[in-house]
Design the sequence.
């Protein structure tokens, strides 16, 4: 068995892990990132929007590494910025999945992060709440990896669970979790015709230097016009099926409307079944769109390369973000950043999406305590598996909050490793000071000058 060692070990290379590893390495920590897939970037690689940087009131709350990614994507043609939508969200931030993957790879390399692909944590050695090393399966066999601090950005709280942390899984009453989905990536489409045929609100329109005129980059709608066909051919399980579209290109579009229910994404056999069902759904939906929805006549498509999982474990942290916190737009003394995307819950039984606005000023603080698993001293959890109720998880699970939490987790882990300080004992004021210095927005209480309004 091989042995490796680092200061900070980040487990999971989705958007959360990318931000965490970059932040830790930039802070001076010898950083290693483990990712089971042969690429980094997670769900952003499928082409989903980075929801959400701007609140319902039109104010930007998400900055730091999250904004750096958007700025650099714009420069390379992989994003069009924060685009006003004025519907159930004020603005949207669509990105190109392939560009996001390439940029994430480059930023990790620039920061000096050692990335090991095809690696899965299969166990830990822990004693008295402190992880000594993880056991990772990778090419060549098992490997013990020792670190001073661990960032669990696995999405499923795998490392925390292996170390004995307790957690909630699904709704506390029913145990049900949000469905898993595939995004469909279409080429050779007419986005303006699609929006005209199906959008329920005027689409978000954007421009790019290599395209003449504005074109739709985000809109949502329903398939109500085609209910008879949907029912006859068994295209969807629901009448009036909701669908979301996004793109950064005038002749490509991503379609978010598939769902498989009652799947425990921690069960590999269940995920195998779900993947087959999603592929079949995608093929059926692709043919339906091509045959019946204007703008898809000459299209071709492929499903995303892996299923999107919305919910599995949420750790029991030193604080649990509650339903009421979301309703109030709660602020915390130990905030490490903010969430400004609505609570987004896809019904576990129907897959239909429901949105509930964050209260107050439209932004919710993320308390550092919610990222610290109760009983563990050198592990910080970031991403959709942080400590939150089933309802609050609908807000914390989205990609902009995950980027915010990732940056904070990586910064905190580097501080912990450098000072040999347990993460729960970390000086939060010092953490906040470092985050502010790196451009993270922690709210007006911490801002020398109020952050401006969105365009």
Sequence:
């Amino acid at each position: 068995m091989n042995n490796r060692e680092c200061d900070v070990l980040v487990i999971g290379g989705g958007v959360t892990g990318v931000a965490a590893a970059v932040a830790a390495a930039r802070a001076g920590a010898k950083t290693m990132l483990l990712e089971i897939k042969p690429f980094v970037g997670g769900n952003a690689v499928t082409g989903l929007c980075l929801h959400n940087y701007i609140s319902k009131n039109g104010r930007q709350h998400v900055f730091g590494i999250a904004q750096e990614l958007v700025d650099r994507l714009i420069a390379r043609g992989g994003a069009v910025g924060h685009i006003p939508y004025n519907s159930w969200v004020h603005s949207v931030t669509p990105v190109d999945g392939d560009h996001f993957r390439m940029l994430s790879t480059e930023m990790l390399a620039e920061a000096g992060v050692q990335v090991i692909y095809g690696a899965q944590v299969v166990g830990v050695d822990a004693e008295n709440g402190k992880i000594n090393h993880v056991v990772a399966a990778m090419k060549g066999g098992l490997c013990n990896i020792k670190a001073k601090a661990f960032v669990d950005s696995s999405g499923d709280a795998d490392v925390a669970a292996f170390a004995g942390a307790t957690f909630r899984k699904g709704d506390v009453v029913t145990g049900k979790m949000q469905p898993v989905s595939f995004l469909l990536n279409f080429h050779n489409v007419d986005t303006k015709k699609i929006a005209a045929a199906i959008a329920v609100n005027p689409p978000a329109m954007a421009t790019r230097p290599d395209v003449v005129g504005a074109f739709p980059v985000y809109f949502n709608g329903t398939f109500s016009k085609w209910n008879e066909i949907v029912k006859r051919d068994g295209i969807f399980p629901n009448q009036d099926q909701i669908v979301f579209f996004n793109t950064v290109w005038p002749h490509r579009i991503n379609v978010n409307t598939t769902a498989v229910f009652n799947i425990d994404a921690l069960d590999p056999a269940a995920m195998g079944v779900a993947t087959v069902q999603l592929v079949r759904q995608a093929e059926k939906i692709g043919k339906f769109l091509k045959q019946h929805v204007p703008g898809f006549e000459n299209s071709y498509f492929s499903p995303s390369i892996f299923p999107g999982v919305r919910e599995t474990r949420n750790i029991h942290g030193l604080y649990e973000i509650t339903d009421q916190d979301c309703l109030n737009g709660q602020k915390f003394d130990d905030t490490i950043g903010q969430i400004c995307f609505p609570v987004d819950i896809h019904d576990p039984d129907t897959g239909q999406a429901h949105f509930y606005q964050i209260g107050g000023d439209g932004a919710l603080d993320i308390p550092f305590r919610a990222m610290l698993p109760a009983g563990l001293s050198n592990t910080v959890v970031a991403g959709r598996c942080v400590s939150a109720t089933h309802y609050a998880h609908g807000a914390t699970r989205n990609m902009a909050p995950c980027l915010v939490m990732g940056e904070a987790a990586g910064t905190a882990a580097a501080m912990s490793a450098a000072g040999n300080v347990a993460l729960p004992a970390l000086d939060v004021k010092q953490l906040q000071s470092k985050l502010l210095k790196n451009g993270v927005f922690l709210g007006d209480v911490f801002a020398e000058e109020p952050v401006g309004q969105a365009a």
About this structure: Residues 202 and 423 are 47 Å apart (CA to CA). The first strand starts at residue 2 and ends at 11. DSSP finds eleven helices and 21 strands in the chain. Residues 268-292 form the longest helix (25 residues).
